[in-house]
Write a structure and sequence with these properties.
- The chain is built from twelve helices and 14 strands.
- By secondary structure, it is α/β, with parallel strands linked by helices.
- It has three domains: about 45 residues, 434 Repressor (Amino-terminal Domain); about 90 residues, 3-Layer(aba) Sandwich (Rossmann fold), CATH 3.40.50.2300; about 140 residues, Rossmann fold.
- The strands form three sheets. A six-stranded parallel sheet has the order 2-1-3-4-5-13, with helices on both faces. A six-stranded mixed sheet has the order 8-6-10-11-12-14, with helices on both faces.
- The termini are far apart.
- The N terminus is likely disordered.
């Protein structure tokens, strides 16, 4: 029989011997407390390099029990399937690491139960702060974290129990609607109402966008029929079904549309292609979202690009300052023509 012997795991005492220093100095470096111990940067770098070479892995759970902060920051996001949330995740990771924090991110699929499950898992890892992005029930997430003494910041959708950073949804929708109405008048020679498609009618962002949509119509002296506001959800299938059902009720669909995300736009464009409804006229479109590939659809689309860098700067500004005021910071989005 061949007997296999398990390789001995490297300990802080082994690293201390290799570095020619004490075990407590090694522990301070690995725990990130070396500056407080007045350990030189040169020695800290040497210990870190030796730890990597020896395959030493710090036991984070045990380490957390011995210090005040874990330096772990968590984020929950509802989806990964568009550039907006993908950009948030990418830039959040970069900003967290620049501050010496370790980011943990998970997708909750717009499911309130998964949001709470994810928050509980984050708390088990002793996160210092949790950023709830687009949470369907941010106050429940915040209350759970507050009970554990962990800070929460809301991003994208606001809550009433913690600071929030969101886009100026009303202002962005107002300007986007103005532009699409003007494009329709220029293209067709008359003022006509637009169709609003996508989003959940109960969430803050969609309600504010509908408000901006209505006010822009009122400014232009155009009446909006209630049937033209289709807050059917974000999924492409729901947008496609909403378009089909509306077309079954009336053959005279608007020549312009306000689409509430690129996810919904996928469903709208799928219906247009399959139905052939706009075969003789390309509708003027506005989308409260941004993706450069939309330019492939033509030059008749206006888009709203949410200012993710400024939004995340505001989030980390709140974290860095330690502010706990229940405020809502609104970041103006960028409205631009694609193509």
């Amino acid at each position: 029989m061949n007997r296999t012997t398990q390789t001995k795991r490297t300990t802080i005492y082994d690293l201390a011997e290799l570095a020619g220093t004490s075990a407590s100095a090694v522990s301070a470096v690995l725990n990130g407390n070396w500056k407080k111990r007045r350990i030189s940067a040169k020695l800290a770098e040497k210990i870190t390099k030796l730890a990597e070479e020896q395959g030493y892995a710090l036991n984070m759970q045990a380490s957390v029990l011995r210090r005040d902060r874990s330096k772990i920051i968590g984020m929950i996001v509802p989806k990964y399937d568009n550039r907006y949330f993908g950009s948030i995740v990418e830039q959040f990771e970069a900003l967290a690491r620049a501050r010496g924090l370790f980011p943990i991110i998970t997708c909750t699929m717009r499911d309130p139960a998964l949001e709470l499950e994810a928050a509980r898992a984050m708390l088990s890892y002793q996160v210092d702060c949790l950023v709830a992005t687009g949470a369907t029930d941010p106050d429940r997430v915040m209350d759970l974290c507050a009970a554990a003494g962990v800070r929460t910041i809301n991003l994208d959708l606001p809550g009433s129990h913690a600071p929030s950073v969101i886009s100026d949804n009303y202002g962005g929708a107002l300007e986007l609607t103005r532009r699409v109405l003007a494009n329709c008048e220029k293209e067709y020679g008359e003022k006509t109402p637009l169709l609003f498609v996508g989003g959940r009618g109960t969430d803050h962002n969609t309600m504010e966008r509908v408000r901006g949509f209505r006010d822009a119509h009122a400014e232009a002296g155009v009446t909006v029929d209630e049937a033209l506001v289709q807050t059917c959800g974000y999924a492409p299938e729901k947008a496609e079904n909403a378009m089909r059902q509306l077309a079954e009720r009336t053959s005279d669909l608007p020549r312009g549309m306000f689409v509430n995300s690129t996810i919904s736009l996928e469903g709208v464009m799928r219906w247009i292609r399959r139905s052939g409804h706009y075969a003789d006229r390309v509708p003027q479109l506005g989308c409260f979202d941004w993706d450069p590939f939309v330019a492939m659809l033509g030059d008749h689309i206006e888009m709203v690009r949410q200012d993710v860098p400024k939004m995340l700067d505001a989030v980390f500004g709140i974290i860095d300052s330690g502010a706990t005021d229940i405020t809502v910071v609104q970041i103006p989005p960028i409205v631009e023509k694609i193509g």
